[in-house]
Amino acid sequence: MGHHEPVTDWETDFDHTDDLWAADPYPIWDELRETCPVAHSERYGGVWLPTRYADVAAVAYDTERFTSRSVIVSEFRAPLMLAPQGIAPPISSDPPYHKEARRLLLPIFSPQAVDKLEPSTRAYCEELVDALRGRGIIDAAEEYAQHIPVRVIANMLGLPESDADAFRGFVNHVLEGVSLPLEQRAEGMFALFGYLQGHIDDHIANPREDLISYLLESELDGQKLDAFHVARTIGLLLIAGIDTTWSAIGASIWHLAANPADRERLVSSPDLLPVAIEELLRAYAPVTMARLVKQDMDWHGCPMKAEEWVLLSFPSANRDSAEFDDAGEVIIDREPNRHAAFGLGVHRCAGSHLARMELRVALEVWLAAFPEFGLADPEAVRWSGGQVRGPRTMPLRIGT
Amino acid sequence: MKVRVNADRCEGHGRCYSTAPEAFVADDLGDGHEVGDGTVPEGLEAKALLAVANCPEQAITIEEG
Q1: Beta-carbon-side half-sphere exposure of residue A92 (alpha carbons within 13 Å)
Q2: Cα distance between residue A265 and residue A284, in whole Å
Q3: B10, B29, B47: best to mutate for the A interface, most A CBs within 10 A
Q4: Chain pair A-B, CB pairs under 8 angstroms
Q5: Which residue of chain B is at minimal alpha-carbon distance from A58?
Q6: What is the pTM of this model?
Q7: Which helix (H) or strand (E) holds A66?
Q8: For A30, phi and psi rounded to 5 degrees?
Q9: Is the pLDDT of residue A2 over 70?
Q10: B2-64 maps to which CATH number?
Q11: Measured between CB atoms, does B12 come within 8 Å of chain A?
């Protein structure tokens, strides 16, 4: 996946797109937490990697010295002129602007609003498993997990479900194409925004009951949002809503396929699922965020330079034994479980309630349909690298 | 036992009201609030304590008990 030189030294030259990191990052982070808790790499113009929970939390809470102007590590940094909105508001916005831009979205993703989407999500999961019944070996990443969030988010936004393949192409480019040359990266962004602009123009001409029309009617500081802001927020929701949830569903199914005792327990005690989901989110948190250093500074002894990246590894924080007992073990009924899979501080994932609902329903339907499943070929499982980690190929045996 | 959600710290993770819906409730932004004056219904103290411990922002204080 990586287009860079393979990594040989994780303390001074790490790369989060490296094949080793994608395949199994946990031993890398476990070692760094002990030997070099804030690693540094010259790649991408400079990247810092705190791996301990306390350091990840400290960066997440420090919106004064770390900016969210760009949140995906690559050679491209969003131009300063885009501040305070950033490239994809509100994820790329800093306080105080951030709060109002985020407030527009929160009611749409509130628990009450998400409850209303559960029946249609369940019906769609049922449709997907019905199509798989009777088969011996299937790819649960490609044929199940990835379809669920695409359909849910397309319907919320007001984009045609039939464009699912196109969405996945955009998402893949933005999140996994971070090592591509700048020109290719820019082309992909233009394609995404060109696509969105067409649908936004159509919504301006023909308003309807969906998120694009809602945002076009929304006001910020007494002014209607401009179409460019709407396009960037819709782009964010499309990108943030698909790969992340796909990854969480896939990683959870992978864990249960590889650990029959946990699978059997959830099949016989479905009531445990909400607790189990929190543990699967802790152990396999899919999302790593990023910040940019605002100004040269000494941070806990690290000489950070302006415009260097900081990878905010919530997945590593969640594996810190200073914060969690037996942090490296998946304990399916772990309680309490104060994990940070959805981030910490003002940028807590706005879609977390939606993601949890999708994950719970996807697992409920899956476990009811296929109580006995396992990895058909453990070596064939392929995980995505970069800032969203989940299985992208996952052959499972679901029937005899 | 009495609990209180610190509104300045709450970021709307929702762990409190999903863990102990008898003691916490969501507003329309997803932020959590104590139910009523924060008095935890008798017999649900352990559940409320679990909700406090689950909060990623450590935004909930136990005021009595």
Answers
A1: 24
A2: 19
A3: B29
A4: 52
A5: B57
A6: 0.96
A7: strand A66-67
A8: -60, -40
A9: no
A10: 3.30.70.20
A11: yes
**The residue type at B24:** F
Q: Do you know the residue count of chain A? A: 400
Q: Provide the CATH number for the domain formed by A19-397 in this structure.
A: 1.10.630.10
**What's the pLDDT tens digit per position in A342-358?**
999 999 999 999 999 99
Q: What ipTM does the predicted assembly reach?
A: 0.98
Q: Among partner residues A106, A107, A335, which is closest to B50 by beta-carbon distance?
A: A335
E strands present in A248-381 = 289-293, 297-299, 302-304, 309-312, 374-375
Nearest CA to A279 out of A265, A299, A296, A293 is that of A265
Give the mutation candidate from B6, B10, B11 for the A interface (greatest A CB count, under 10 A). Answer: B11
- Asked whether the predicted pLDDT for residue A177 surpasses 90, the reply is no
User: What is the helix (H) or strand (E) element at residue B24, kind and residue range?
Assistant: strand B24-26
Are the beta carbons of B28 and A110 separated by less than 8 Å? yes
Domain spans in chain A, listed from the N-terminal domain onward: 19-397
B33 interfacial to chain A (CB closer than 8 Å): no
Given a contact cutoff of 8 angstroms between Cβ atoms, the answer to whether A396 and A141 are in contact is no
> Which SS3 state, helix, strand or coil, does residue A38 take?
strand
pLDDT at A1 over 90: no
Q: Give the Cα separation of A83 and A125 in Å (integer).
A: 40
pLDDT of residue A3: 57
